[in-house]
Amino acid sequence: MRTLSTKDGLSLSELSLGCMNLPIDDKAESEKIIETALDAGINYFDTADLYQFGENEKLVGEILEKHRSRYDFLIGTKVGNQFDAENREKTAWNPSAAYIKEAVKDSLHRLGVSELDLYQLHGGTIEDNKDETIQAFDDLKQEGTIRSYGISSIRMNVIDYYKKHSAIATLMMQFNPIDNRPLEVTDKLSGIRPLARGPVMKGLLSNKSSSVLEKKFNEGILDYSKDELEETIGALAAINRDLTTLSYAFLRKNGAVIVNGVSSLRQLEDNLASYGRTENLTDDGYNSIMEAVKLLKYGEHRI
Question: Does this model's pTM top 0.85?
Answer without folding.
Answer: yes
